[in-house]
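Continuing the batch. This is chain 6 of the set; chains 1 through 5 are on the previous pages. Same settings as before, nothing changed between runs. Recording input and output for traceability.
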Amino acid sequence: MSSSLDKLKALTSRLDEKIEEKEKKNIKVSSPVQEIKTSEKKHTKITETNTDNVRSENIIRVKQLYEKLKIFEKSPDFDQVFIYKAMNISGIGLKEEDFAQVREGKYIQIIAITYEPDKNGKKKAKNISLGYFGKAETLENTLKNEIIEFVLRWRYEKAFQNVQHYKDLIDRVEVSSDTLF
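Output for chain 6:
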């Protein structure tokens, strides 16, 4: 995954260079709209840098928790843990009204959700346990917080991946529209 990310960053860098070259050539025919676009691009780069820092710090912590909670026993390749469509916790509330409350009598597990085709080819949700932590009543508070943190940070990274996908698509549209004019 990181090699794909590196390739994507290199491609984005080359696109930015091409756009800058094109803007330098067209600087004589500058309009207020072009100035606004240039300003927006500078702001976007600053925001992307901040986002990249937050994202890299998040992924480091996700990996630490992945190892500490022994998720690697069920999902040995760390990068593959993000192929799941969703992740949840059984036995601990994550909704606003019951956040971090353990459910008495329940077993604590980290559940990954994926979609696989059934015998008719229709996609069906499949739950996969990535970690089992025993009964709710015996769960230590520190471990409970680490389980919650892992799932929330996993979701955060998954959201970054989704945003990046749409940013890439928008960039492709913008580059395509630049060549049309």
